[in-house]
């Protein structure tokens, strides 16, 4: 599942493959850009912004993409077979003499003037893996809606950029609170540690092929994906329920013993507190 760490890795692969090279192939397979041709332009750099990727090319243009749940950029050498999925899932192809980058299942793909990048990412809060990271600002953003459930607030990229469903569940476990606890009810010392814990987890994982939050090789995650299995800390069975992020519900994992506090009843879902799916939370 793409989150800030995996997007950072994807961006680095794209940058290493394309930056400084002239595009010899350009194929944007969305109707709006079907006739757009970027060949002959040099790729300047590729940078991440939260879960967004910005590929800047010569001439003041930026190709903005977002992976969402199952999008991917794959890099291939000349003559190498493309293995990212069937051809109908390809949304973008950017090629140089040495490498070809193929974007599969990209739900967001748009070409912007580089000067207008804020139109796509200006709504984002401080980036956990970016040069703009500001823990005080991130915490202030989270606390600005004190009645909102912590899990929802962490997923809202307007508060801080880079956390997805996996890190949301793991961060709440490490803080020993349920994802349904209102942000304003976080103990002061827990709230103070929230930006630090979040930053450490993403920093630790941005260079790793397998996401780890436990420090163990045999059990890499504390709660995410472990419903019905014993908690690594206390042995209680991990539970799972849906929780909204402001636009849709997502499975959320927690230990009812290590994380006391509000939680849905077994077999029920926690409905989103914000129902507008049109708001930019990604």
TrEMBL record:
Swiss-Prot/TrEMBL keywords: DNA damage, DNA repair, DNA-binding, Glycosidase, Hydrolase, Lyase, Metal-binding, Multifunctional enzyme, Zinc, Zinc-finger
Similarity remark: Belongs to the FPG family.
Stretches with biased composition (Polar residues): 268-282
Record EC number: 4.2.99.18
Pfam families for this protein: Fapy_DNA_glyco
Region (Disordered): 243-282
Lineage top rank: taxon: Bacteria
Annotated catalysed reactions: 2'-deoxyribonucleotide-(2'-deoxyribose 5'-phosphate)-2'-deoxyribonucleotide-DNA = a 3'-end 2'-deoxyribonucleotide-(2,3-dehydro-2,3-deoxyribose 5'-phosphate)-DNA + a 5'-end 5'-phospho-2'-deoxyribonucleoside-DNA + H(+)
Organism (species): Streptomyces tauricus
Residue span, Formamidopyrimidine-DNA glycosylase catalytic domain: 2-103
Stretches assigned to coiled coil: none
Lineage: Bacteria, Bacillati, Actinomycetota, Actinomycetes, Kitasatosporales
FPG-type domain span: 222-260
Protein name: DNA-(apurinic or apyrimidinic site) lyase
